[in-house]
Design brief:
The complex is a heterodimer. Chain A is mainly alpha-helical. Helices cover 47% and strands 2% of the residues of chain A. The chains are: A mainly alpha, B mainly alpha.
């Protein structure tokens, strides 16, 4: 049939079979391709590479470990082993005999054991049967054991038990025999096994590493375990993931546990030893802070994407939403990883340079985050720039307004000055923080320029009109300019202010204004009154009184008034005509809800009824409302008004498509947006057609790149991500005290002069970044110390261990009245801040909490020394020559103060220790002076607890230090130290004979 | 060179405007089937059409917008589909023309000749089917390996994709939404399409063309179906896929998909034309929707009633007599519904008509 049928076939011959065969082969090829495509995941390659890398590392370690083995000892043991083996060989007949008897004994023991266990099992069953039959009845009282049936059964059972016991005895005997043979055997081989043991001990590290290395090597069994399909069972290459049950990802309709699979490729991220490897195998650069098991953020508690963002569940380079740091890296990634933007991913990775901002996700309750230097710098920049004046930021509500009050500005500035200043703040002082509001890049037409002038005039008039009167109340003659400069450099103005005669040591956004052109701003009388008592002009200022003498004020005023900006003085204030002002007012009124629905005629007739000054005042108020001056400056009538900016609390989570990029060609990312906006706040208006009142109005900060980087870092970390305790940082009661005190410290800029928290940590000498790092030594704390780089001890003392150092009552008194000097040689003064009771208490609690002191006040204990102790103490005191630097019970004499390089007057009067210092702290200071007071001149006499005076008290270092501390505390007891503060000698006036030690103080 | 390039691209962009391209497609449809059928059926034409389409797409890919739209993993199959549509349309016409010639000469059509030559199920049919399934399997494998499924993020209610597009096979329906309200474009019309397709075998009583291609013997059936398929379905899918961008705005093939592009939206209801433009009732719209939308309702009802009468008495008199009442009325109902779409499109383009009957208070808008 087949033959006949072939003629009727549609396709002749074997055509169809061939086509079928070919297509089947093609299908097979594609199916295999599919399996391989599915099997060959990117991360498997990385894991294999990492195995090889690990094997290499182990090999290196093995080499090191081998090098550490004592060759001679190894040889010795090997010889010993060879010797022992030779001995055994000699007695080979004995050895074989021994072996035979041992085997024999073992067999016998095994047989006896089996016999016993078998019989015991039979007995157990009999016991059960007996209990089942009679036991229950006896237990329930239906039968007695004396019952004949029960008795019979019981007797049989007990008889059998005796037999079982006999078998047990046999087993024990056999076991003993075997053990005896074993001992014989061990003794025979003792020399050999001893040598083997020693050898193993010597090689233990190498053996351990070798077996670890074997674990990392590719073997056939691993190959099979990882092959397609079989890899479902127990592969060695597998996904790694960290599940964080307390941290949840919001996927819109539900919240799921955070799952980070980053460690699937970043295999060495928490393993030390891979610091120099190429990615993805590099160790985290800050293992002691992040990811390390003993760090505050262990990897299994924090994962990766909490800080870095990105799609934690993905294991492909691009899909994990890696974000390149810059264009260069982007190009490199495109080439190397075929990286492409993940348009649909919202939680893209934050570029590495901004990651630190994300600390805020968990650390919300403190102003600064420990060890987050970049973020802390950003916080300072935002404080200085006053972003929070207009933009609410959660956690920043307690901040005071960042700029001076305008409530009495009439008594300080002239109308013309304000006009010129507001028009272009940097024309007055290039270092000003005030952003420019008028005549920015989006004011392009002549018409709009006129409108700006109209508003500027009206705004200035309005400010003057609403200002209260103010009259300075302190007058003094102008003094000597040169001396004024010296005073400026010495008393501590530089802690907050900058002036161009002294080297700049901070950026634009510091605590207080740059004074380089102040002479063109304020009047003499205003300045003298301000210097005398800043709170006279402005109750809310944080400017302290430096308790300047009349002469000093005269000198300082003469100096500051000489710092003028003549170009600015020559500028025209400019005017505007009423008609233009009416036109602009009309624009505002057409949108005024009170006028709605506003028609031209309605507004026109309303304006025509206004008197000229009413037009100006209304326009001024409208401009103030629109431009939001009141966000930073206190202004009458605007006390409760909200700032004009959007809230930034969760800006970092804002989708990019909610940001206006105008017509600017750039990659649409929030950090690009923020950078461009901060560089020119009106940039998005470029090329866009808008009505006057629709133009962007954020004042222009024209931020430099460094400041922009700071702000962007901070802002990207302000996200809507909700992390609850225990993952989020919750302050303990102690930490809350510390934070509250630090807020006062930051507000009054104590850290402008003092090192408060000891943030700066020097890098190791061989660190390549050391030099660059040193430059930023005073960025966050103790800025003024940069002027004392030759001798830090001439600057304000570091307060790093202040908490444990001083008693709470002393701190309280000192803050309320800091007039007496502890270190008479210092020229710089502790200012009088006139803190409120609440503020003082907060600082006191801060130190108490920081030093774990008893709080509020510990009893001031009386120190009494026996005569032996006293003589010992005196001997020690003299031997260590404490009195070389310290005075006891007296002030340093002028000649001592004048002496070059002397510490007299730098080291505090020891008679003041009682009532001020804590004993424990003194002991710690004696032990490690450099740690307790960084930069101190005080030498450490007990290096590594080696006593400097072995002849005293048997050289017991601990006892010596304790004694010395007690002695010091006893010195001022009932005497100098407890004198009321008011009787203390007031601050000595500066004597011009003493040279001020500022390294580059007069360089400019 | 650049100016010529600009001129050409903007000319093509302008040509692709819905009003122009749709009208042009209708004209082309008429020409191909009623004037140029013989020419169209030549093999040369097929090569020329597919070739020029390929060249057009290839050259156009120099333009970044065009390239990004065409090479999206979602859209690549649709590009493939265009080539297939052209091929199968051509194939049908090609066979029609051959058969029509044979019929004119009084000869058997091709299929009838073939049908006389019987072949075995095994091995020819079974093997052929098996090979086809293998090839289909291979294509699917390659497709799934090379073009990864374009998966996106979990749906975010505050951030919907723009444009939000239906799956490609529903883009025709989505395009209808531009012209009709959802209850019509999303419910009534799709239902009619499905029902209509089901009813075809029951309505169609023409015994000719059974098992072979012919145009002359089935002019009405073929034109009405292919108009619905090619113009009202495929063309609208092309619009939805390639020419509708953010905010469902029209974008020429070379036009950048600018999120901020605005189009004039000043569509006006018929009733507003009636009362406001003519000053009827003092230019005030009556509150009673029946009074207000009376004209529109009359027009809509009139379209169906008068249209039916006209077809029955005049243009399709013969068909009416052959089919009988029930079949004929169902056919006419479907035809008129199909015709409603292009009519509304034209009205929108010409007079910015929003609704013929607009009663938003009842959610009843036509």
């Amino acid at each position: 049939m087949a033959n006949n049928a072939s003629d009727d076939r549609f396709y002749k011959g074997n055509t169809i079979i061939k086509v079928f065969a070919i297509s089947s082969i093609v299908m097979l090829v594609f199916t295999v391709w599919m399996i391989l495509d599915d099997f060959g995941r990117e991360w498997k390659g990385y894991q294999s590479q990492f195995m090889a890398l690990k094997a290499k590392k182990f090999q290196e370690q093995i080499e090191v470990a081998k090098g550490q083995i004592d060759e001679a000892k190894l040889k010795e043991i090997q010889d010993k082993l060879a010797q022992a083996e030779k001995e055994i060989e000699k007695k080979s007949t004995e050895e074989s005999k021994l072996e035979k008897t041992l085997t024999n004994a073992k067999t016998k023991m095994a047989n006896a054991t089996v016999n016993f266990q078998g019989e015991k099992a039979v007995w157990d069953v009999e016991k059960y049967q007996h209990e089942a039959k009679y036991g229950h009845k006896i237990a329930e009282g239906h039968m007695e054991l004396t019952d004949p049936k029960a008795k019979k059964s019981y007797d049989a059972l007990m008889k059998h038990w005796d037999e079982v016991q006999k078998l047990r005895n046999v087993m024990n005997v056999r076991t003993q025999e075997y053990e005896a043979k074993q001992v014989e055997n061990t003794t025979f081989f003792e020399a050999k096994s001893q040598a083997e043991k020693e050898l193993k001990l010597l090689r233990s590290e190498v053996d351990r590493l070798e077996s670890a290395k074997q674990g990392a090597e590719l073997t056939l069994s691993k190959l099979i375990r990882n092959s397609p399909v079989l890899d479902m069972a127990s592969p060695t290459l597998k996904l790694q993931q960290i599940v964080l049950p307390t941290i949840r990802d919001d996927i819109y309709f539900s919240q799921v546990q955070k799952v980070d699979r980053c460690t699937t490729c970043h295999l060495a991220i928490d393993l030390p030893g891979f610091e120099k490897e190429a990615q993805p195998f590099r160790t985290h650069p800050k293992l002691d802070l992040m990811l390390g098991s003993s760090s505050p953020h262990p990897i299994d508690k924090i994962g990766c994407t909490v800080c870095h963002e990105g799609r934690g569940t993905s294991t492909e380079f691009s899909r994990a939403a890696h974000t390149p740091r810059n264009e260069e890296q982007k190009k490199e990634w495109e080439k190397k990883y075929h990286w492409h933007e993940q348009h649909h991913t919202i939680e893209k990775m934050i570029p590495l340079q901004y990651t630190e901002g994300k600390c805020r996700v968990c650390h919300k309750s403190t102003e600064y985050v420990p060890k987050a230097e970049k973020l802390n710098k950003a916080v300072q920049t935002i404080r200085g720039a006053g972003c929070f004046g207009c933009h609410r930021i959660e956690g920043w509500d307690h901040m005071r307004k960042p700029a001076p009050s305008l409530k009495r500005v009439k008594g300080k500035l002239t109308r013309d000055w304000i006009m010129k200043w507001v028009r272009k703040p940097r024309s007055f002082n290039q270092w000003t923080r005030m952003p420019a509001q008028f005549h920015q890049s989006n004011i392009t037409s002549d018409e709009f320029k006129q409108y700006q002038e109209a508003e500027l005039n009206a705004l200035t008039d309005y400010i003057m009109e609403e200002s209260d009167n103010y009259k300075p109340n302190y007058y003094t003659a102008l003094g000597n300019k040169a001396q004024g400069k010296e005073v400026f450099g010495q008393v501590g103005c530089l802690g907050c202010h900058q002036i161009d005669d002294f080297p700049r040591n901070r950026g634009r956004y510091g605590q207080a204004p740059d004074l380089s052109t102040i002479g063109s701003k304020v009047s003499k009388d205003w300045l003298t009154t301000w210097l005398k008592n800043p709170k006279h002009y402005w109750q809310g200022t944080v400017m302290p009184s430096l308790r300047l003498s009349d002469g000093e004020i005269g000198d300082l005023t003469a100096y500051l008034l000489s710092k003028r900006n003549e170009e600015f003085e020559k500028l025209e204030a400019g005017t505007s005509d009423l008609e233009t002002q009416k036109r602009v007012l009309k624009l505002y009124l057409l949108r005024d809800p009170k006028m709605a629905p506003a028609t031209e005629t309605k507004v026109d007739s309303y304006i025509s009824e206004l008197k000229p000054h009413e037009v100006v005042s209304k326009l001024g108020k409208a401009a103030m409302t629109r431009y939001g001056c009141y966000g930073c400056h206190e202004f009458k009538g605007f006390e409760m008004a909200q700032g004009i900016g959007v809230e930034l609390s969760d800006w970092g989570s804002r989708p990019t498509n909610k940001l206006d990029f105008g017509l600017q060609e750039m990659e649409h990312t929030n950090y690009n947006w923020a950078h461009a906006k901060l560089a020119n706040t009106r940039v998005w208006d470029k090329g866009i057609v808008k009505e006057y009142l629709d133009l962007l109005r954020m004042p222009n900060f024209e931020m430099e790149e460094e400041d922009r980087n700071s702000v962007v870092t901070a802002v990207l970390g302000m996200t809507a991500q909700k992390i609850d305790p225990p993952s989020a940082k919750v302050l303990t009661a102690r930490e809350t005290f510390i934070e509250e005190g630090q807020r006062i410290v930051h507000q009054y800029n104590c850290q402008g002069c003092h090192m408060v928290e000891g943030i700066y940590q020097a890098l190791a000498d061989d660190d390549p970044n050391k030099e660059e790092h040193e430059k930023h030594k005073w960025d966050l704390e103790g800025r003024v110390l940069s002027y004392y780089s030759e001798d830090e001890t001439l600057g304000p003392p570091p307060l790093v261990t202040e908490g444990g150092r001083v008693r709470s009552d002393w701190v309280h008194n000192f803050l309320n009245n800091p007039t007496h000097r502890l270190r008479e040689k210092l020229k710089i003064r502790m200012p009088s801040f006139n803190l409120t009771h609440d503020e003082v208490n907060k600082v006191v609690s801060y130190w108490a909490a920081q030093g774990n002191l008893q709080f509020p006040v510990a009893t001031l204990e009386k120190v009494s020394l026996t005569s032996t102790q006293l003589s010992n103490a005196k001997a020690l005191f003299n031997k260590l020559q404490c009195a070389n630097c310290h005075t006891v019970g007296r002030e340093a004499t002028p000649s001592e103060l004048a002496e070059e390089g002397s510490s007299k007057g730098l080291a505090p009067n020891l008679a003041r220790a009682h009532g001020r210092l804590n004993k424990d702290w003194i002991i710690q200071l004696l032990k490690e002076p450099g740690k307790m007071v960084p930069g101190t001149r005080m030498p450490g006499y007990w290096p590594e607890m080696q006593s400097p005076a072995p002849e005293i008290m048997g050289g017991d270092s601990k006892a010596q230090m304790e004694l010395l501390a007690n002695y010091v505390l006893s010195l001022g007891q009932g005497g100098f130290g407890t004198k009321p503060e008011s009787e203390m000698k007031p601050v000595s006036n500066l004597s011009s004979s003493m040279e001020f030690k500022v390294s580059a103080a007069t360089s400019k | 060179m650049a100016t010529i390039g600009n001129f050409i691209t903007s000319a093509i962009n302008a040509f692709c405007q819905p009003s122009i391209l749709f009208t042009a497609s209708c004209i082309l449809f008429y020409l191909v089937f009623f004037r140029w059928r013989e020419k169209f059926a030549e093999k040369k034409t097929l090569y020329w059409m597919e070739g020029s389409m390929g060249v057009f797409i290839f050259v156009s890919c120099l333009n970044p917008t065009f390239r990004s739209v065409v090479t999206k993993p979602d859209n690549i199959p649709i590009v493939g589909m265009l080539f297939l549509v052209v091929f199968f349309t051509w194939l049908a016409v090609h066979k029609m023309v051959i058969n029509d010639r044979l019929i004119d000469q009084g000869l058997d059509v091709e299929n009838k000749k073939e049908a006389k030559e019987l072949v075995f199920t095994w091995p020819d049919l079974v093997f052929s089917e098996f090979i086809c399934s293998i090839i289909a399997w291979c294509v699917l494998l390659i497709w799934s390996i090379v073009l990864k499924a374009p998966l996106e993020e979990p749906a975010n209610p505050v951030e919907t994709p723009n444009p939000s597009k239906a799956p490609w096979y529903f883009l025709g329906l989505q395009e209808m939404l531009v012209y009709y309200d959802p209850w019509l474009a999303g419910v009534v019309f799709p239902t009619l399409i499905v029902v209509g397709l089901i009813l075809i075998p029951f309505i169609d009583i023409n015994p000719k063309g059974n098992g072979y291609y012919t145009f002359k013997e089935r002019k009405f059936a073929i034109t009405s179906f292919l108009f619905g398929f090619l113009i009202l379905w495929i063309l609208l899918i092309i619009y939805g896929t390639f020419l509708r961008g953010p905010n469902w705005n029209f974008f020429g093939p070379y036009e950048v998909w600018d999120l901020h592009k605005l189009e004039v939206l000043k569509n006006v209801n018929l009733s507003e034309y009636l009362f406001r433009s003519t000053g009827l009732n003092g230019g005030k719209l009556p509150d009673n929707p029946f009074l207000r939308e009376g004209l529109g309702m009359v027009l809509v009802i009139g379209y169906f009633v008068y249209g039916t009468i006209l077809l029955q008495k005049k243009w399709m008199k013969n068909l009416y007599e052959k089919m009988g009442k029930p079949r004929f009325y169902i056919l006419v109902g479907l035809l008129l519904s199909m015709g409603a779409l292009p009519i509304k499109m034209v009205l929108r383009w010409l007079i910015n008509l929003k609704y013929i009957v607009g009663i938003p208070e009842w959610f009843f808008n036509i």
